Amino acid sequence: MVMGDLASGCDVLVIGGGPGGYVAAIRAAQLGKDVMIVDEKGERGLGGLCLNDGCIPSKALIYASEIAGVLGKESEKFGISVEGLKVDMGKMQEWKQGVVDKLNNGVKMLCKRHGIAVVKGEAFFKSSGKVGVRTEKGIVSVEFGHAIIATGSNHRPLEKLPFDGKQVVSSTEALKFSEVPKELLVVGGGYIGLELGTVYAKLGSKVKIVTHGSRVLRGVDRDLVEVVLKRLDEIGVEVLFDTAVEGKSEEGERLKVKLRQKEGKVVEVDADKVLIAIGHSPNTKELGLDKTNVKMDEKGYIKVDERMRTADHKIYAVGDAVGAPLLAHKASRQGVVAAEAICGMKTTYHNRAVPAVVFTDPEVASVGISEEEAKEQGKDFKVGKFPFRALGRALTRNKTEGFVKIVAEKDSGLVLGIHIVGSEAGELISEGALAVELGAVLEDLAATIHPHPTLSEALSEAADATLGKAIHIFQPKIKPK
Fold this sequence. Notes:
By secondary structure, the protein is of the alpha/beta class. It has 13 helices and 22 strands.
């Protein structure tokens, strides 16, 4: 690579090293292409927001807080008493970072072994075939055969309570707290706010969650959300619905945040830290896309076809940059599609099932359409549930909250959606995703022998319940057809 205006080149240029970008780069390299990744500047390594400051570190802290929660109170049910429990955030952060570093180094090794060049910098398009990359040593020009935009998204700020990186923070800083806040205010009722609010509540924080609307986890089946809300109340998390942030006043190391409630009443709450978690916006504004034929919607998301190709046929885009759902596993799948499409394969992104998981306590996982969506779409459907409290494995683990819920077509039994709230829901949903993706019917799930005693039995039991022939919960007698 040569500095200055003298262009270097590659077959495939990938802009962004997150779960969409590095996966696309590796797949293109496997197919024989000369590949370069332009990864963002700074300390964050390959893997993007998800691996370094999102999915992975948050799940590490969630697991650690679960242990603290069990040892702190719940273990007494098993006849195990623990005295003098202490939380050392320094050691916890060190362990969490070790997990991140191992995965980050794994991605680096894979890129190196596939011969992928990685450049740290900020890419911007000069034309439909050339980008400039701002590096620490100056601007590098790179010509490409095809480009894949995988720049992801970033935290959306709140105008009335802007980030300062210390007291008013995004999830990136919240995942790096050196001490457990005495009082934590979370602004936003989405999955990030609820996950991290739960973590710090279990570690000892007094947590309040503020949401602008009348519900949390919008888009998630209401029945599932009710179970999560009950658990939040049990661990001492207060949720303030229909409440908006009006501003703040500082008192030394603490904040007073003004909140306006639905009826117009203004209240003040104290907080050591405020986590703003109101969503993400795509990282597309600084790409210089006006120098290309790439088209975007009004929110800045890039428009693509089923092969992840933009209106500029040399440029593809994947992941958060192309819109919802903003999920790492969706980005990775789209990265594979883009790379294979560039290499002439007939791959398309036509996945029917994109599962989503919220790592609250208990976990929430969904795939396909919900009962509400089935009603809105005018479908003739039926619903069945199987509770975890009737599941032997759940009882032996003292994890009986929640259920599996199935939405299926009434006549054909085609599985339209599977929704789980309970222990290990994130692991269980993969069977649901396979069922929806392959067009399975209820009998397929019900007739598949599931090992006993396991949590996975809940899926076949829920299928039986939807068919009206549940064994381990009572259902009224029906006449066989």
